[in-house]
Every structure is written in structure tokens, then in C-alpha cells.
Write a structure and sequence with these properties.
alpha/beta, 2 domains, 7-stranded mixed beta sheet, about 10% strand
Length: about 300
Amino acid sequence: MIDFRYHLVSLTAVFLALAVGVVLGSGPMRDALVGDQAAQIETLEGSVDSLEGDLEQQQAEAVAGEQFAEESSARLLAGSLADVAVATVEVGEPPSDDAEAVRQRQVQAGATVAAQVSIGAAWTDPGQVAFRSSLASTVASQVVGVTEDMTPTTVLAHALAQSILPGAAPVGGDAADFAAEADERAGVLFDLLAEADLVSGSVGAPAQAVTMIAGPASEDDGAQSAAYAEIAGVLGQYADGIVAASGTSSTGDLATAIANDPQASGVVSTVSTGTDYYGQISTALALAENIGGAVGQYGPGGGQTYVPTP
């Protein structure tokens, strides 16, 4: 049997709980608690309204900025790349819309797009080292100026350069040697690289300048970007001008890899966020400046210059 005192204790606890509820639910305690919560809710609602207002203002400013850039770009770019045949070389799979926008800004500056080439994953795949070495040995006989001390990837980069920039000679090269049968050699080399899945795309005409368009940096400690920097450095030996446009600055990105490459850093201009809306304009201007003989590194942020000076 359950002792009567047990019932008495249980009933007392129930009544105490009810009493506490009554005290908290009415009178000064209720007013204090509810009033404090109401004040907090009001404060939070005010913060939300303020943030929404800031967001609307920032969105309006962004729209106005893009409209200004769009309407002023014709004046900013006006003929800066007039009659320049540009080859675009995509690396790291940049978004197709970004790559096309970069090209269109250069067309707006007066350029023609002579070639659209993408570097395939096989070019940087660690598992394809032996294959690239074998291919380099195969194509070496078709590449002018190859020396025995060149690495396989360097040989392949020269093959790419001679396929999209036929007739151009690197610094120190004999122009007559590179000009001889240049168009025929260019077609053969591009076909070999394409059949090996190292490149894809098309070459419509000989190019004079190169725009490298990079996708997001990979998480491989910069090894992939370093391979792309090597390609850019070799292309820079042949081209009248070269610029590399990448996304937001990050560890292991292309701009950093080019800055760390002894050959590329001396010839290749870079634009961080060069594939973004405003950077597309800077990329065209940086290419024009590079053709004129100046090499620069551009990007947004404190202590940096974003727009090349005409």
C-alpha cells in the first residue's frame, strides 16, 4: 500500500507548481518576463529591417555599378586591341559564361578571336606522366627549336604555342626556321594534342596574342596552377602579348603560380578576378598594355591596382 504521506507530498508539489505558474503568469513577474521578451523581439525586428535596407542599397549600388561599367566600357576599351588576333586558352574549367564574357570584352576592344582552346585534364593528371613523356618524344620531331634538356611538358607547351601562333618565333629563335611551313606544322601539332586529349577546341586563324582564362584554383597545393603557369610562360615567348585572367585570389591560384614561375613572371600579366564582371574590362586593358611591352599584376583590394593605366 502507498502511504498517505506519499499522497500528501505529491499533492503539495502539485499545488506549489500551480502557485509558481500563477505567480509567473500574472502580476509583476509576468510583466517583467513578457516585457523583456517583447523588447528583444522589437530590437531583433529593427536589426532585420536595417539589414534588409542595407542589402537593398547594396544591390542598387551593384546594379548602378554594372550599368556604369557597361556604358563606359566602350570608351575605356576604345580600339585598345584593334586588329589584334587573340587566342583564348582555358585552363581549370572556367564557367563558360565567364570565358565568353572575357572574349566579348576583347572583341569590344577591337580584337578578333582567332582560336578557342581548352587544356584538358590529361595535361596535369599525375597518372598520365608516362603518357605525356611518350607523346612529347613523338611530337618533338614536329616542334621547331626543341632541345634535349626540355622536360616533356615544356615540349608539349612549345607544340601548343606553335599550333596557335604559327610563324611566331620565341625570343632568340631564328624567325626563318619558325616561319617555314608554319601553317602546315600548326595543324599537325594541334591535331596530335587533340587526339591525345590534351587540348580541345578550334583554331580558325593564326593568333598574335593570348588570353589565358582560368577556372577556380584546385586544392592540390598549386601543382595544377604551376603546370598552367609553365604553359603561359612558353606561350609568352611566342605571343606579342599575353594576360592570364583568374577568379578571386586564393591559395594556389594561377596568379600566384605565375608570380612564382621565373619565366612566366617576366612576360605574363595577371588579373585576379579577371573573369568577373569588372575584371573582364581590366583583362582586355592588361592585354593591350602587355602588347605594348609592360608586364603587370592587377587585382582589387588595398595596396593593389585593379585597372591598368593606358
